[in-house]
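tl;dr need the bound structure. longer version: we got a ligand (adenosine-5'-diphosphate) that a collaborator sent over and nobodys looked at where it sits. i said id run it. heres the input, straight from their email, havent touched it
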Amino acid sequence: MGPIRRRRLRRLLIASGAVLIAAVLWWVWHWQFDNALRESRRHAEARLALYTSSLDGALERFTYLPDLLARQPLVRGALADRPAVIRRVNRHLERVAERSGAEAIYLMDRRGLTLAASNHATPASFIGHRYEYRPYFRAAIEGGQGEFFAVGSTTGRPGYFVSAPVRTASAEDATIGGVLAIKVSLESLQADWREAGEKVLLTDANGVVILSSRPEWRFRRLGRLDAAALGEVRAQRQFQGAALAPLGERLNDGSLWVESGALGERFFTTARALDTLGWRMHYLVPVRPLYVSARNAVLLAGAVCLALLLLGLWLRERQQRLWLREREARIMREANERLESRVAARTRELESAQAELVQAGKLAALGTMAAGIAHELNQPLAGIRTYAASGARLLERGRDEAASDNFRRIQGLSERLATLIRQLKLFARKGGAREPVDLAARLDFVLDLLEERLARQGVALDVQLPEHAAAGSLLVAGDTVRVEQLLTNLLRNALDALREIEAPRLTVSVSQGESRVTLEIADNGPGIDEDVLEHLFDPFFTTKAVGDGLGLGLFIAFGIVQDLEGRIRAENRPASLGGGAAFSVELPRARQVPARRDREESLT
Ligand code: ADP
């Protein structure tokens, strides 16, 4: 996938993620709002049911009381307007009002003039006031039962009025002589609502608020009020001079917008009808808390979304980090593998190159060796040929003495050839037995063979064996022939080096360690040059004149020491010790008693 397509895809993903989150938040808002609204509606219904039933109950208690009182002879008697009876009636009504909890109970004559009243003794006494314009009076005077809610024209206090006709005689059809009315105050209900902290309204049939938990909403109207109804209200002086301004405005969604101070308030309303006078009770649910709860839910959902988003980002970043690390590891692994395979290939190349070199080296060595051997053989052979030819001529001439000298020379030369061949034969010998060899004895034997040369050169010989070394205790693991060959080669080299020295001295010392025996052969000759030291043990390396040395002595010595698993080292001795060269040989110790063996192969 190209980077542009990837970027486009990412942009699309981000956009759809944003849309999804917005949709979720929108849904959460509505879900929470609807939930809260449903819940408060349910609460409103429950409260309304309670309040309406308690109000209905409170009013019902007074519905029967006027008729009951109107049938009492004492009350009926008061219509005769006799002062003595009126006084008794006043006291009677006062008692009944007290007991029943009515605000006032009063008796009017046919013209609506109050004759007796429970509040006769108070300044706000109804006695002498006329109420013929009130509907409850008119209903009762016509023989029915009157019910009405109005603001008291005498007291200015609102109340529920209920009335019954008072007949002059006990008969049901006797003429109606007056009306008995009871005024019930509903102020305490309002106080209850206010204390419960709820917004409750009670409207009458015209939609005018007659009770409210908020006093300022009282005597305002919900809905429209036509002119006829308004005229009637005015005629009945129902609310005295109240303007009956609209309480608020109905919005499209059915909520009620109420102006209060600078700000307005919105309510959802739930209403329930009462049994009385077409009254309705309204429960108002403020909209703002619903919005607040929806907003809180949205904030919470937003926080959850954000947390999920962050979690997602974190997981993604971690994934990427892991992926990167894996990629790095893979790259490293691959690089390693490549390197290893390269090393392996190089090693193979080197090995084959080395094999070639070894092969070439072998060929070169073979060439050098063949040339050396040819040279070494050629010289004595040429000598033999010459001496033989001249010997033959000498014999012909009868010079026997000179001829026999030639024969001696021929013998010496063939001796040399034999020595050379013996040396070469050593190469053919492989391994050999590994048996305890008494080093001290072999040293004695070789020194015996060289005694004549030592004496001729006037060499001072110093042999140092370890103290208390019993005979046959310096045992090394090897075989006699090779040990003798080793000693011979080293001692011969030393004697060669001492040829021109004034006071030649040869020191042979043997020391014994836990597992090794060390032999040192030192001379006070010229020593070994630095550049010679490097090639000392190479085959056919020699500094001696042609015919004097083959350059195989040390090479053979090295081979023997290697075979016997020992070590050989050459160094120059410091001038303080008289200078010269020193060869030290370390050989593994053997602990067995040396086996007796014949000396057929011993060397000269
Ligand atoms: P060759 O004796 O036939 O020359 P070697 O392998 O025995 O062959 O010795 C190689 C060379 O090492 C000699 O030519 C000589 O230069 C040097 N060398 C050996 N031993 C001594 C010694 N004791 N002192 C000085 N040089 C020595």
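gonna send this back to them w/ a short note. Residues 594-604 have pLDDT under 50 and may be disordered.
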